[in-house]
Amino acid sequence: MVLSASQLAAASGADSPSRLRERANELRAQNGSLSAQGRAAWLSSVSLGTRIEQTQAALVRWQAQTEAIAAQRAQAEESLRGARRTLAVSQQGLADRLRVLYERGDTDPMSILVGSKSMDEAISGLENLHRIAGQDRRVIDQARAARRRLIAATRRLAAREAAARQAEEATAASVAALEAARRERTAMLASLTARQQSNSAEISALESRALAAAAVPTRVGGSGQNVTVTATGYSLPGHTATGVAVAYGIVAVDPAVIPLGTRMTIPGYGAGIAADTGGAIVGPRIDLWFPTTAAALAWGTRTVTISLH
C-alpha cells in the first residue's frame, strides 16, 4: 500500500503538522494571557501584604489605646467609689454631730443665748455653732462636686472605651478580610502557574508530534524504496504487537510511517519485517531485536538507510 504525506495528514485530521503547530501556538498565546494574569495576581498579593501590615499596625495601636482608656476608666471608678465613701462619711459625721447637739439641747441659737452666762460666752457659742455647720456643709459640697465630676469622667471614658473597642473590632475584621483576599490571590497564582506548566508540557508534546508527522516520507511501502531512519537495538523476551514471538529480524516501527508487514533490509543487521510497535517509536524510528543484551548494546542507536520490499 502506498500513501502520500497529504493522505496521511487527511487520515490523521487534527494530528496534521500544521494543526499541531496551530494548537501549540494557541497554547502559547494562552500562556501569555496566563502570565499577565499571574503578574496581576502577584502584584495584588504584594499590595495586600502591605495593606495587611499597615492595618495590623493600626490594630496594635487601637488595642493599646483601648487598654489605656480601660485603665483610666478603672482608676476613675475607683476614685468615684472613694468620693462616695467620703460623702457618706461626711454625711454620717454631720448626722452624729447634730444628734449630739440635739441631745445636749444647745442646737438652738436662742437656747445658747439664754443659757450663756455672759455676752462673750453667747457670742462664742453662736460662732462655734456656725463654724461647725459651715465646715460640714463645705465638706459635703466638696464631696458631692467631686462625685459629679467623677461620674461625668467615668461616663466619658466609658464612651471612649466603647468607641475604641468598636474601632479595634472593625480593624481586626479588616485584617481578616485582607488576609482572606491574599490567600485567594495566592491560590489563583498557584492555579495559573499550574495551567502554564501544563500548557508548556502540552506544547512540547505537540511540537514533537508535529516534527514526527512532518518527517513521514512521501511514499512508504513501495518496493525498492529507501528510507533513512534512526535504529535502536533492544533485547527483550515476549511477543510483539502482532502476536508473534520476538526473534531476530523482528522490527518495531511506527505504522504511520512503515506499515506492519513491510519487509526491509537494514544495513549492518540484515533482513527484517515490521511486526511490532512501541510507544516511544514515533516517526522515522525503528527498534531492532537482538538475542542478547550485549549485541543490542553493541548496536546502540544509529542512523541507517533501509530498503523497503
Strand order of the largest sheet: 1-5-2-4-3-6
Provide the helix percentage: 55-70%
Largest sheet: 6 strands, mixed, barrel
Query: Which shape, going by the Cα principal axes?
Result: rod-shaped
**How many β-strand stretches?**
6
Strand content: 5-15%
Please state the average pLDDT score: 79
Jot down its keywords:
single chain, 309 residues, six-stranded mixed barrel, 5 helices
SSE map:
Layout: H1 5-12, H2 17-104, H3 109-115, H4 119-214, E1 225-234, E2 250-252, E3 263-266, E4 270-276, E5 285-289, H5 293-299, E6 301-308
Parallel strand pairs: 1-5, 2-4
Antiparallel strand pairs: 1-6, 2-5, 3-4, 3-6
Short account of what is shown:
With 309 residues, this protein is of the alpha/beta class. The protein is 67% helix and 12% strand. The chain has helices at residues 5-12, 17-104, 109-115, 119-214, 293-299, and strands spanning 225-234, 250-252, 263-266, 270-276, 285-289, 301-308.
